[in-house]
Specification:
Structural class: alpha/beta
Strand order of the largest sheet: 3-2-1-6-4-7-5
Number of strands: 7
Order of helices and strands: EHEHEHEEEHEH
Shape: globular
Number of helices: 5
Helix content: 25-40%
Length: 150
């Protein structure tokens, strides 16, 4: 797998469904960290993921601690509007983990503080917007990664 998309406590089923579809299209693996803001069998998730959901390479984690314990030796970057470095400064590697927070508040403060040196943002060119939609942000990062790896 070229990249790993990690969603920490996703809240909106349509976003997760669209990101699942993106994961499959890009050859990426999807990692979903509980708790979720929806049930995994939510019709909105399935509708956004269309009939592709069963083809996904997906791993579920019961919480953040389990995710980090299992993947402690993996190369990771963290995406947040609080990042000080821009996403095009990421040096993508095969099998890199791209970690995104939940829609309402982003990554937990503890993760931001613990990984400040690996925290990146997508630049926003308007003072009237706080952040991008999660599915859009994941798309930008994944395809920049694929561009660099190819």
């Amino acid at each position: 797998m070229p990249l790993n998309i990690v969603l920490i406590e996703p809240e909106i089923p349509n976003n997760t469904g669209n990101i699942g579809r993106l994961a499959l299209a890009s050859g990426s693996k999807l990692h979903l960290v509980k708790p979720f803001g929806f049930e995994i069998n939510d019709s909105r998730l399935k509708r956004a993921g269309l009939d592709y959901w069963q083809h996904l390479d997906i791993t579920y984690y019961k919480n953040i601690e389990e995710f980090f314990k299992i993947n402690k030796d993996k190369s990771m970057v963290f995406l947040s509007s609080h990042g000080t470095k821009n996403h095009w400064d990421i040096r993508f590697e095969d099998d890199m983990f791209l970690v995104f927070g939940k829609e309402s508040v982003g990554l937990p403060k503890s993760i931001i503080e613990a990984h400040a040196n690996k925290l990146y943002k997508i630049p926003l060119h308007s003072p009237h917007i706080r952040s991008l939609n999660l599915a859009n942000a994941v798309s930008i990062i994944v395809y920049e990664g694929l561009r660099q790896l190819n």
